[in-house]
Structure formats: structure tokens, C-alpha cells
Amino acid sequence: EDDKYEEIDEREKQPNYEQKKWEEEQMHSAIYRFGAKGVKKEEDYDYVFDEQIEFIQALQIPGTKELSLKEKERTVSEAQKKRMDLDETKRSLPIYPFKDDLIAAVKEYQVLIIEGETGSGKTTQIPQYLNDAGFTADGKKIGCTQPRRVAAMSVAARVAVEMGVKLGNEVGYSIRFEDCTSERTIIKYMTDGTLHREFLSEPDLQAYSVMIIDEAHERTLHTDILFGLVKDIARFRPDLKLLISSATLDAEKFSAFFDGAPIFRIPGRRFPVDIYYTKAPEADYIDAATVSILQIHATQPLGDILVFLTGQEEIETCQEILQERVKRLGSKLKELMILPVYSNLPSEMQAKIFEPTPPGARKVVLATNIAETSLTIDNIIYVIDPGFCKQNNFNSRTGMESLIVVPISKASANQRAGRAGRVAAGKCFRLYTAWAYKHELEDNTVPEIQRINLGNAVLMLKALGINDLVHFDFLDPPPHETLVLALEQLYALGALNHHGELTKLGRRMAEFPVDPMMAKMILASEKYKCADEIVTICAMLSVNGAIFYRPKDKIIHADTARKNFFCPGGDHLVLLNVYKQWADTEFSTQWCYENFIQYRSMKRARDVREQLVGLMQRVEIEVVSAEGDSEKIRKAITAGYFYHIARLSKGGQYKTVKHNQTVMIHPNSMLFEDLPRWVLYHELVFTTKEFMRQTIEIESKWLLEVAPHYYKARELEDSTNKKMPKVLGKAKAELQVVN
Ligand code: CDP
Ligand code: MG
């Protein structure tokens, strides 16, 4: 049920659908490819210049019609009109009257904390103001970090439009596996993780004159670590300006951390928001949300609705139910536009949420947490808040990570409500009781650094030469045991030696923007001579498993198609098989369509794969093929993921080897009917049970081969009720050395 299906398209029922769809895909992919040089998204598409029109024509894509001179003129004059509207919008933002003060403050102080309501213009305007004020005059860049990739991309696109430049030229973005910048780029948006990696190649951020750590209140792991890193370099780069920008009331805390840096407050424009609670707890909040949406739509004056859900699956479910109910109600209602927003949303669809609602219609935006502060959608009057979000949680006792749905904090609830009062007085409908708000919600969300696996972060810091992690300048330090566990894991993977120093292997692992286990598996593919297959598997795993397409009315066909890809060994090999077959068709769209494979995900996997191959060259690993030897491939995977091993126990359940936790094979896995004795899983997902997602069959003796320092032969014997082995000894000693 937590599969990621793609919304079935109404048009699918039309004649010529396949041809049309193909043309459309071609069009998108042309725009996408073109995007590397210039125009990127649909939203920019009506903002084309002559050369761009010509470029698209030159591709001679079926479906693109020749534009007449008249049409060209119209396109260009529409662009001019848009330009004027844009200027007006820019001047109406709350930050606008403070432009000069802000520039003066940046000139005066090296570090500045900026606080302002979401939507006041911090992210889109500040880099432009600083650009106007000459901060890029000496060939240096203005950088701005975002915790979320969608935000980085969409904000960059917006700013490119506002500045009248092509995305990727003067204004660009860089996110994991996708760099849309050039030598001309002066304003660069990036995810916090990307900046983290830039430190590896350029520890003093020499390319930047200003670095903005935006959405600081989100307190993601990467942002938290960046605080320490930028604070440090600010000392020996007095010419570097640092802006820490945040939406909520953490400003004092940030100021204290940055040695009393001044706080620049942008007065918010805020309209009152009435808050409503349910009288009794809701059993099914998705259902409650859809009912509320329709009630608002039927009874309340026009104004858009924003609904907070926890993830893509929920959003799609909600969208489906809504569409069905709206269809049933037919012409009794005004038009309701349903728009999803989540982080994997294809970029060409992101633009839609920012388009103005047509007169007489109402927009309902179904969003994840991303709309809480990272993205501002104009004209929201109603907010529906079920009170949950998805969180990555890490159990430092068991070392297990899983994605779970948890209640939000009061601070989050108030941010969400605030979204309703940006343009006029609004209403927020909380799908929980006032009692629950008061007594069950925590005041603040726990920062990520205190609740997730630090393996990745520790590896990066070690690669930056920061050995003493215990005394690293953290805004809020991570729990000691999480740090120990990360060190221990990196030690077991061979990335650190017993002094806690980075090994040669660790240094090579740090080159890859993936978690340490995946990095290890990539490097192990050298030994097992299967790098070609392993990079493909990594790329396929990185697109979040959203490979198979399972439209509701064709479930049987889709499942049959999926089963046709099954091949011995397990799910990783199925993914490999899909990619290989696709590659054999010269990456055909038609083939994807016929086999119920999501073309977009495949295209992304192909991009990711290309990037990984580039990185392989950097660490000098030859991309050779195992020529069908599945054991080699599975051993390389095991060399990275030997932590994720479970053994069959009673009743079709599995127990994890180290901590004896009960887990199940996911029903979508090809091993679901097989239940091999030993399995390796890629990740755990908690829905109704703790499920292993993407599993392969392994042999227990491989564990002794790939991780002799982690597994002892006796734990791999086939009797049950083993005591927990003592493996912590060395890593603890190591931490003492670090101390
Ligand atoms: O960063 P902050 O929350 O202060 O505001 P912002 O993201 O700079 O947004 C300022 C304005 O730009 C808002 O009115 C947004 O609706 C608009 N915007 C947009 O139209 N498209 C985007 N991709 C991002 C922002
Ligand atoms: Mg912002």
C-alpha cells in the first residue's frame, strides 16, 4: 500500500493516447536537456526568447509546431508584460522597504541573522539585493542553501525569471546528482548537503562573497553542521559575509551561537487566522481532510486551500479520493484544482502550484512539510492540518533507522496555521482536538542532529580533517551514543582505523554523495569486479523505488509486467534487470509505457548513473561488468550493507541478526513468496509493521568474508536465541582516542 503509484491520467482513455504521451515526453525531455544550457521548466517556457524558440524548433520534435512571426512577437510581448507584473510583485514584498537598510547592515557586519515571516521575500530577494549592491562584482558568487531540493530548484527558477536570465546561467542551482550552474553563475541556490560537499573541494569557500544559510530554523543535520563550519571559516575569511536566515523565533539562539551577531528583523504582514479544532479525535485523517476540503469548497468564500500530509503516497491517495468525489458531485461545485507538492515531484509539475488560480476557481494544494516554510504559495486562505509529518528516526540503541509518521510540534502547528494569514484573514482547521494540541504536542521539533544516523555527517567531517567531533562547535550537540554508533559503523565499514582516523578507503568513500553503506558497496564493486552493475543498482535505489507504475484499473497487468522482471537473487537484481532491458531498447519511452515502468524515474536513474560513473573515474575504479555472475554483485552489496541482515524465524517473520528485531519482507518484494533463510535489506519502512524494502538473498558465510571484524562465525550459526555479541569494544576505545 505504500507503493508509489503514479496518478492515472484521464487522457489515457483517449484515442491516440500513446502517441500523444510520447510526444509530450519528448517535449519535456527536450526542454529538460535544453535546460542544462538554459530554459529548464514549463514555467520558463512561455518566457522564451527567440533563440530558444529556434532551438526547440531545431530539434524538430513531433508535436512542436512551427511558430509564425506573429506568434513569436506575441510570445515576446507577453514576456514583457510578465516582466512588468513581476517588478510590481517584487516591490510589494514585505522585505522591499528594507532593501537599503539590509544592504547597509550586510556591509557593516560580517555575520547577520535575518528573521522574517515565510513569504516575506528572504530567499528570492536577498541574493538579488546583494547582487545589485555589488557583492558579485569581483567575480565571486552569492550562495544560498536550502534544506530541500524542490525549494532550491523552484526558487532558483523563480529568481532566474525575475532577473530575466536563463536558469543555469547567472542564476542556477545545484542539488545532489544535478548541477544546473555554469561559469557565469553569480547566484547559486543549493541544498545544504551540496554545500557540505563543496567544503571538501574548497574548504574556505573562496568562490563566494556571501553565503546565506537559509531556512535555518529547519535545523536539518546538514544545516546544523554548516553552522559550525561557516562560523569557523568566517574567522579566517573576514571578507566573507554570512547571513543566517530563519522564519521563526530561533533568532536569539542563532545570534548567541554566532558570537552575538546582530538580528535583522523584517516586520511581517500577518492577518488574523481563526483556528478550529475537531471535537473528537479523527480516526482517519486523510478521510477527514478530504471531507474538510469539500466542506470548505462548498460553503466558504473563494480562496485557496493548503493541506499538510506526510508524504507522496498519502498525497496521491487523497488526490484520488478527492477527484472521485468531485467527479460525483459534478457541476454542483465550482472548479476545484487539485495540486500535489512533494519532494520527488517532477520539476515540470512544480511550476503549476505557483500559477495563479483562474477567476471563479479554487485551488487545493496537497503538500508535505515542504509548504510549512520552504515554499510560499500565494493566496492561501484555508489551511487543513492533520497534525502529522514523516520523520526519519534512528534508534541509537539498535542502530536502526526508519521512516515513521509522528505528531508535529506546536511550533510546526503554528507555522502551518500562519500560512493561512499571509494575504488576508484566514482559517486553519486542525484535525485534532484542542486538548491534544495542548497536552500531546511537544513545543518544538527535535533537531535532526539529535535523532538521525550520523554516519554520513561524521564521514564528511573526518574527510574535512575535523577529528575531534566531541568538541566540534555544534549549535546543539548530538547525543553521545549516536556519535559513538556512527564512529563504530564507519570503523566496521573500514572507513576509519582504530585511532578514529580516516583510512584510504574512507577517503574514497567520502567522494560519493551517498550514505556510507552505499559508498562502501560501490567501492567493494572494484574487488568483486561488478562496478557496472553496482552503479546501476545504486542509481535505481536512489530514485526511491518509484520505478514500477501500477494504475488502479490495470493492477493485474502491471503486476504481471513487474513479475516478468523477476530474476534469481532478489530485488536489487530485479532493478538491475529493468535498467538493462531499458538500456537495450536505447532508453525507449514506449518500452517503459508497455512494461508499466515510470519513464521519469528511469530517466533520473540514468542521470544519477552517469554522475556515479564520473565519480568512479575520479577514484579510479574501472566500470567493469560481472557478466551475469549474481554472486559477485550480491557480495559487493553485502560488503556495504552487512548491517542490514535478517534471518528467517518463525511464521514467515525475520529477525535482524544483531538486535533480534522482528521485521518482514515487503509484499512487493520478489522474495515475498520465497522467504530465503538469510536476507539483506536496503531499508526499513514502518507502516503497519516494520518492513524490509528491497531485499536480496545472501549466504551467511559471505558475512565473514566481507565483514570479518563485525561478524563472528558463531552468530551466524543457525540456532536461535543468541546473546548480543560484544562488538562495541573497539569503537568505544576509539572514541576515547578521539576525546
Ligand atoms: O523566503 P521567504 O519565505 O521570505 O519568501 P520567498 O520564498 O522569497 O517568497 C517571496 C515571494 O515569491 C512569495 O510571494 C512567493 O509566492 C514568490 N515565489 C514564487 O512565486 N515562486 C517561487 N518558486 C518562489 C517564490
Ligand atoms: Mg525562504
UniProtKB/TrEMBL annotation:
Full protein: residues contained: 163 to 901 of 901
A single GO BP: mRNA processing
Protein name as annotated: RNA helicase
Catalytic activity: ATP + H2O = ADP + phosphate + H(+)
Enzyme class: hydrolase
Keyword field contains Metal-binding: no
Annotated ranges, domain Helicase ATP-binding: 103-267
Annotated ranges, domain Helicase C-terminal: 292-465
GO annotation, cellular component aspect: catalytic step 2 spliceosome
Keyword Nuclease: no
Domain of life: Eukaryota
Annotated source species: Megalurothrips usitatus (bean blossom thrips)
Entry keywords, A to Z: ATP-binding, Helicase, Hydrolase, mRNA processing, mRNA splicing, Nucleotide-binding
EC number per UniProt: 3.6.4.13
One Gene Ontology molecular-function label: RNA helicase activity
